[in-house]
Amino acid sequence: MPRPASAVFKNVCPLDCPDTCSMKVTVRDGAAVELKGDAEHPFTRGFLCQKMARYLDRVYSPDRLMHPMKRVGPKGEGRFERISWDEALATITERFDAVAQSADGPQAILPYSYYGTMGKLQASSLDRRFFHRLGASKLDRTICASAGTIGYEYTVGPGRLSADPLAVPNCRFVVNWGSNTVNTNSHLWSLMIEARKRGGATIVTVDPYLSPTARRSDWHIQPRPGTDAALALGLMHVIWRDGLADDDYLARATVGAELLRDRVLSDYPPDRTAAITSVNIDTIETFARRLATDQPSLIRLNYGMQRHHGGGMAVRTIACLPAVVGSWRHPGGGAMLSTSGAYDFDPRLTRPDLSPPGTRTVNMNQLGEALAGELPGPPVRALYVYNSNPAAVAPNQAKVLRGLLREDLFTVVHELFATDTVDYADVVLPATSQLEHVDLHGSYGHHEVMYNPAAINPLGECRSNNDVFRALAGRMGFEPDIFPDDRTLMREALDGGPNLRGVTLERLEAEGSVRLNLPENYAPFADGVFPTPSGKCELYSERMLRDGFDPLPTYIPPHEDPQTKPDLAAKFPIQLLSPPRPQFLNSTFANSPRHRAGAGEPTIEMADSDARSRGLVDGQWAEVFNARGSFRARVSLSKTVRPGVAVATGIYWNKLSPGRSNVNSTTSSALSDMGGGATFFDNLVEVRAAVDSPTEPPSV
Ligand SMILES: Nc1nc2c(c(=O)[nH]1)N[C@H]1C(S)=C(S)[C@@H](COP(=O)(O)OP(=O)(O)OC[C@H]3O[C@@H](n4cnc5c(=O)[nH]c(N)nc54)[C@H](O)[C@@H]3O)O[C@H]1N2
Ligand SMILES: Nc1nc2c(c(=O)[nH]1)N[C@H]1C(S)=C(S)[C@@H](COP(=O)(O)OP(=O)(O)OC[C@H]3O[C@@H](n4cnc5c(=O)[nH]c(N)nc54)[C@H](O)[C@@H]3O)O[C@H]1N2
Ligand code: SF4
Ligand SMILES: [Mo]
Question: Where does the 4Fe-4S Mo/W bis-MGD-type domain start and stop, copy by copy (predicted)?
């Protein structure tokens, strides 16, 4: 069909961000010429964040990969020559066939992906079908959210239902608990501000770091990293001790209230809580009282706080608080971790049944171990990376890079840009941007289902993830009916559970965004019924006991904690947090000139006393190191952390960083207490002056 000369499309921001914005894109003569926030969308409300406001620069960047390539230099150098799609696809299928037919079998092939795009089609549909059908190893996608997800589910049940974000302006007390909402969930922040304006809500942030959100909050509570569960248990102590618990809600909507009450009253008095968390007793007392009495109160939990060994238990513990204070009664009240569980898309999109029984699963946090042959099962001989940049974002980076350097490893990377990971590829494939392919979106920060049309034709020879998997499946001789067109896939996905009733492809194409079949001011647990085995909020969890955990909330210290690991802390005394820089989305945009100019050079924010005792001054280049590796950053004495804590925001690309390594050269691949989650913020380091500091820093 010929395209009209000028048209306006409603596209969806594809980034891994809870806000899932609606973008209005004007296309003239086949080229996107304007992009802005959709004023009609209930959550986007007309604005995009600083990262995406100039997305057209990214789409039309001269640095986009435009055709397939094969490696001509040593691995890691990033030297390639152009090849045809035909040669690229033939090379991949020949290598995959050879590995699959070998004694190691198809499980020696490992897909590796995360959420470069959140679209249901391009992130988890034909890719999963292809690798399942091939019999490849499965990937456990644990790098971000798995500890908190499982901890939350133990408490409130599967589906992880959350307070309705659109009802947040009703709240009177809003807690950002380990959530840098201003930058990571900016449209929710604007609803929090509305709660402050409308009803005088108090905004609190619980964060070891004076984050941009903490700075703009009414109250900043600054615990030691990884001690949130102890803080939550201390709050419960005060709430029960002072008779502020919601006894009616506890009696009808929870199991284990008495057991939990006994535990917190005996084990978590304010003085002990203060000793573990470094939060003073007055703060604990006041915080507890206000959380209980300023109703509706909301706890916005985010994933930052669960990147510690005890992260799963911490989320599980904090998720008990709304039941103790009865805040689930009110629209907007309760807790919010993710709204994604409300989307009951049909699971046949990924066809798990195609994977042969007994196929191993590789935890993506252990990519280094997998490539080093340290995990059970056959060696990894072929790796297919898409929607992710593991050379920059994965923990224990030195080990990951050693693996990627293996001459006997065949690596395919499907990307839009020549990332750090691309430099290690044998075959590079060019990917489409969100304006060049069709997709269907849920969200993890609101309750709309959204449709993303292809507003422009693919640039150069770029192809979408699904188009590539369709082509590969064809060459492998897989059944065509497993790899249908995108419209068929969307119809299958929408043929899901009750929340999708009435949400059709036709409506989505016409309206762009359609609310899930949920009432306005949705309050998931107002009636006190939870989708757990007991039908109640499980303060005591029989399931956890069976899974080998303490059935009651408890405090699990970090792996690398000065209080519990004094020997390690004697060598590496500083707890290093590495949350994202506001200008970047993980490592996405870290190559964009505009975003880099805004972000500036890598920094390490330290307490004055920690710098002084090391002879470091503000602005100086430092080396941050531990036994796993090191990176360079400029010392920043910005009064954002307590002594003993430092912050290096990221995620910079290695090849664009001084010293060519980033913060993940120090982070650990140890797993969290539950869910096999990442522990990026559970990281002891030492800091010293960089010996060969350039007087003029490299321009990054
Ligand atoms: N601008 C921007 N937005 C993003 C992203 C991005 O990279 N850039 N990433 C997206 C993704 S993938 C995700 S998962 C979400 C994450 O969203 P958030 O969870 O908000 O992200 P973080 O900034 O990683 O962590 C939030 C805060 O947790 C704090 N924190 C660290 N350790 C602890 C602790 O032990 N206790 C407490 N209470 N706080 C702690 C950090 O200092 C940080 O300020 O954001 C999404 N949005
Ligand atoms: N130290 C430290 N490390 C962290 C974190 C941290 O806070 N601190 N955060 C962690 C978290 S929360 C997460 S979620 C992970 C994120 O890790 P990743 O998911 O790897 O995220 P990105 O760095 O954004 O890389 C996504 C890549 O996908 C590409 N891409 C985008 N769209 C498409 C597409 O349609 N097709 C293909 N083939 N590619 C596409 C983008 O160009 C980009 O390079 O990082 C984790 N790593
Ligand atoms: S706030 Fe999030 S969803 Fe909205 S434009 Fe920015 S990155 Fe995209
Ligand atoms: Mo994430």
Answer: 6-63
CA 677 to ligand 3 center in whole angstroms: 24
Tell me, what DSSP letter sits at residue 392? H
666, 577 in Cβ contact below 8 A?
no
Q: Are strands 448-452 and 513-515 parallel, antiparallel or unpaired?
A: antiparallel
Contact 323, 98 (CB under 8 A): no
Over residues 224-253, the mean pLDDT reads 98
Whether 257 has a pLDDT exceeding 90, the answer reads yes
Q: How far is 394 from 445, CA to CA, in rounded Å?
A: 24
DSSP 255: E
| Domain formed by 566-689, architecture | Beta Barrel (2.40)
pLDDT at residue 5 in the model: 79
CATH of region 6-59, choose from 2.20.25.90, 3.40.50.2300, 3.10.150.10, 3.40.720.10: 2.20.25.90
Alpha-carbon distance of 278 to 146, in angstroms, equals: 27
Q: Which ligand is nearest to the CA of 584?
A: 1
Out of 384, 386, 387, 681, mutate this one to test ligand 2's pocket (max ligand atoms within 8 Å of CB): namely 387
Give the number of the atom of ligand 3 that is nearest the alpha carbon of residue 187. 1
Cβ neighbours of residue 675 closer than 8 Å, sequence gap 6 or more:
142, 146, 147, 148, 149, 150, 151, 312
The answer, yes or no, to whether residue 697 has pLDDT greater than 70, is: no
Rounded to 10 degrees, what is the CA torsion of 659, 664, 668, 674? 180
User: Could you tell me the distance, in angstroms and rounded to a whole number, from the CA of residue 496 to the centre of ligand 3?
Assistant: 26
